[in-house]
Specification:
Blueprint: H1 2-18, H2 23-30, H3 37-50, H4 55-66, H5 72-81, H6 86-98, H7 100-111, H8 119-131, H9 136-148
Helix pairs in contact: 4-6, 5-6, 7-9, 8-9
Length: about 150
């Protein structure tokens, strides 16, 4: 077991050197390297206590990387899928919602650039923004703004 601890630790450190991981993600990455789940759990606990594995840092990094392209709903869903606690997601939402309208406008402008000419095109633009995780109120405001600018 002592021989396996060092390589497992080295693998975990190499993963973390590349990017932040959630505890669940890192456990899945390490699982094929050992059959001892307790060893993985102990290693992850040690990493958390040392500050090498941080849920808060992962959330901050993900929000920073994704908020220029996606809405709060989609980012929150991604964080949940990665195993982030509901409390950490809730803490990140105010920051995301604060800039959501500007982000939605920028995403809409980059993709479409001009107001929809008919109801079909309007529905298509709205579906696109929904797929990016923007809320219906935000989408409504973006679409209203696009018709007012003309």
């Amino acid at each position: 077991m002592a021989d396996n601890a060092m390589p497992l630790r080295e693998h975990a450190l190499r993963f973390l050197a590349r990017r932040e991981y959630t505890r669940d993600e890192l456990a899945r990455k390490l699982a094929p390297l050992t059959e001892d789940e307790a060893e993985i759990a102990a290693l992850l606990e040690d990493f958390q206590q040392r500050g090498w594995l941080s849920e808060q840092r992962f959330v901050e990094q993900t929000v920073h990387a994704r908020q220029a392209k996606f809405g709060a709903r989609r980012i929150a869903h991604e964080l949940k899928e990665k195993g982030i606690s509901a409390e950490a997601i809730e803490a990140a939402l105010p920051q995301l919602r604060e800039s959501e309208l500007e982000t939605a406008r920028a995403v809409w402008q980059k993709k479409f650039g001009q107001p929809p000419e008919d109801a079909r095109e309007r529905a298509r633009q709205m579906r696109f923004l929904m797929s990016r995780g923007f809320g219906t109120e935000t989408i409504r405001r973006v679409m209203q703004g696009s018709t007012e600018e003309e």
